[in-house]
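Holo model, uridine-5'-diphosphate. Inputs:
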Amino acid sequence: MRPAIIFGTRPEIIKLSPVIRGFLEKNVEPLLIHTGQHYDYEMSKIFLEELELPEIDYHLEVGSGTQAEQTGIAMIKIEKVLMEEKPDVSIVQGDTNTVLAGALASVKLLIPVAHVEAGLRSFDRTMPEEINRILADHASEVLFAPTEEAKKNLEKEGIVENVYVVGNTIVDAVLQNSEIAERKSKILKELGLKEKEYILVTAHRKENVDYREKLEKLVDILTSLPLTVVYPMHPRTKKRLEEFGLINKLNKENIIITKPLGYLDFLKLEKNAKIIMTDSGGIQEEAIILGVPCLTLRYNTERPETVKAGGNILVGLEKERVLYYVTKLLEDEEFYEKMASAKNPFGDGNAGKRIVEILLELKAKGKLKVRS
Ligand code: UD1
Ligand code: UDP
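Output:
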């Protein structure tokens, strides 16, 4: 069995690390193809190092560009590798342009695609990620849905074969790394922070940061928060804040901006935050896994399970709404505890192992192929 793992961004490295480990435990060496969608040290290599992943077999150096440029160049480069290597299956994870490029390049070469984190839907087709998810799911042969809800989304679109509810590999990654983070990371001391006395913020989504008026709203929210704010900033956001001349507005005594952090430091910051405020997908998941109340800076989410479980509230970029919930969380202990004790809906931390076992079994039965 020779699986190819195609990835290229920060969350994909983190969420595929349990799958890579799972294969290595079964003495299967996956072919690792990194598109280079993320290329800064702190957006990519730091995770390969911290998570102790094997050497990447192919660095495709796709880099940044428009949606079509990035996806198209990635497809062309991925196709070349796949034609040479002829893997048994291509594994992609999530909803990035790397995923769409990997899925399309593979299926057209009749290499079956296994999609990890299949079936998520925000039902907002203005998000590039929503288009990527839908198309990747429809191009895939094996679908690893994290929850029953994700499986139902697939069913509604007629995808019923080879769908497996396995949990989300983010639980594996958090469980495998949070104890190490607790021991090794010195980030609280470095930033002069005390446990449960700060709000951890991240925002990088196109719809929030690429438009001046939206970014102004975000800045207005961040500068109104009544607690220390720690914001490890995604390069997209930094670029836009500079372009729109808004970066200096964040020069405030209670706001700490850092470069993007490694996984161990970031996990430590998440675990010890009083509140997490984010537009990230993975961080909405990690917040409920770690028992930290999450306010999501979006109007919809493809992770509705976190909202239903009571650990996540959609606040959009509505300052009044954000401040209402921040104040409530800081002043109403019962409300805080209720959010903090919401049950993790993403499984038991064995998703990576399950994915590997299922793929090995399908291969053994001769069922790992593109349907005719
Ligand atoms: C991508 C994904 C998004 C995911 C995010 C994870 C798509 C459509 N979006 O968004 O779903 O949540 O990754 O973080 O695939 N840049 C750098 N250095 C880097 C990478 C990016 O400076 O290493 C800057 C560039 O200016 C680039 C911008 O960030 O144009 C956006 O990068 P891109 O990969 O296109 O999208 P993300 O916002 O990272
Ligand atoms: N993350 C990190 N350092 C940071 C910010 C995020 O290690 O400075 C991790 C975070 O713990 C999560 C993942 O990156 O596992 C989320 O990535 P991101 O928010 O970029 O993408 P999304 O999940 O929205 O696709």
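The longest helix spans residues 67-85. Residues 9-11, 37-40, 43, 64, 70, 95-97, 128-129, 204, 235-236, 239 surround uridine-diphosphate-N-acetylglucosamine (ligand 1) (CB under 6 Å).
Archived with the compound record.
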